[in-house]
Amino acid sequence: MDALSLNTLGHHLQRLRLERGWSLSQLASEAGIAKSNLCRLEQGNGNPTLDTIWRLAVKLNVPFGTLVAPISVPLGEDGVQVRLIDQGKDCPQVDAYWMRCAPHTLRQAEAHTPGTRESLTLISGWLEAGPEGDTTTLTPGCHVTFCADQPHLYRTQAAAATLLMTITYGKEGETP
Q1: In sequence order, which residues have a C-beta less than 8 Å from that of residue 101 and are 6 or more positions away?
Q2: pLDDT tens digits, residue range 70-118?
Q3: What contacts 148, CB < 8 A, 6 or more positions away?
Q4: What pLDDT digit, counting tens, does each position of 125-153 carry?
Q5: Is beta strand 161-168 parallel, antiparallel or unpaired with respect to 94-101?
Q6: Where are the alpha helices (DSSP H) in 32-166?
């Protein structure tokens, strides 16, 4: 991520934290990251992983898209890139992303907030995705929806995969 995007993310993260009246220590502890790492992130330094950004969004009780909305460049690590396309304002909250997984990628994602569902449509390549132990194989044009409030994965083979991802946030006990 470039310096401007890191700075923008850091200021946005700090604003969201302060709106809740939380200290650096509180948010870092809740998200399971070092206070020094959170401080660097808020100052526009560091290189946050997608999992770190997800954990911060969950602990701040905001959709991932809300946390990354001010950033126009793709976020990525370990062969995976994501970019927010659009974010709905209705209930349930729906975010749309472009995602690219490099060849021979295995991305294991942490559980999202309760009631969250993901819908994937594969544009190109080959992708295995879904909850661990209950994945679906996608080829171009195929679509899958699964509960994302449990650990899940994305796996490619010899070719890269490009897909559209829609995340529908829910509340515990609700099915979006």
Answers
A1: 79, 80, 107, 125, 127, 154, 156, 160, 161, 163
A2: 988 888 888 999 999 999 988 999 999 999 999 999 999 988 889 999 9
A3: 109, 111, 112, 116, 117, 118, 167
A4: 999 999 999 999 999 999 999 999 999 99
A5: antiparallel
A6: 35-42, 50-60, 64-68
